[in-house]
Amino acid sequence: MNRAVLPAASHIRANYVLRALKIPAGKHKIEFKFEPPAYQSGELIALVCSLLVIGICLGAGLMAWKESKDERAAGEKVLE
Q1: 50-77: pLDDT as tens digits
Q2: DSSP string covering the chain, please?
C-alpha cells in the first residue's frame, strides 16, 4: 500500500480465489505480488531448456543440410 510492504498475514480470504485487505479511507495504490523464488528458478530452467532444444534442432538441421550438400557434390563428381 503506497510503496509500503505489508505482512502476508494482513491479507484476508475474500473468496476462493480473491484476497482482500483492510485499509483506511482515502486514495491508495494497492499492488498484490506473488514472486516466490521457486517460480523464478523454474522460469530460468525453462529458458535454458528451450534454448538447448532450439540449438539442438538448428544443429540437426544444419548437419542434415550439410550432409545432403556433400551427397550432391559426390553425385556430381561421379557424373563427370
Answers
A1: 999 999 999 999 999 998 887 777 766 6
A2: -TTPPPPGGGEEE-SSS-EEE---SS----------HHHHHHHHHHHHHHHHHHHHHHHHHHHHHHHHHHHHHHHHHHH-
Q: Is residue 74 part of a domain?
A: yes
> Which range marks the domain in which residue 66 is found?
8-79
Say if 15 falls within a structural domain.
yes
Cα separation, 72 vs 4, in Å, equals: 69
Output the pTM of the full model. Answer: 0.55
User: How many independent structural domains does the chain possess?
Assistant: 1
Q: Which three cell numbers stand for residue 42?
A: 523454474
In a domain, 3, yes or no: no
The CA distance from 37 to 26, in Å, is: 34
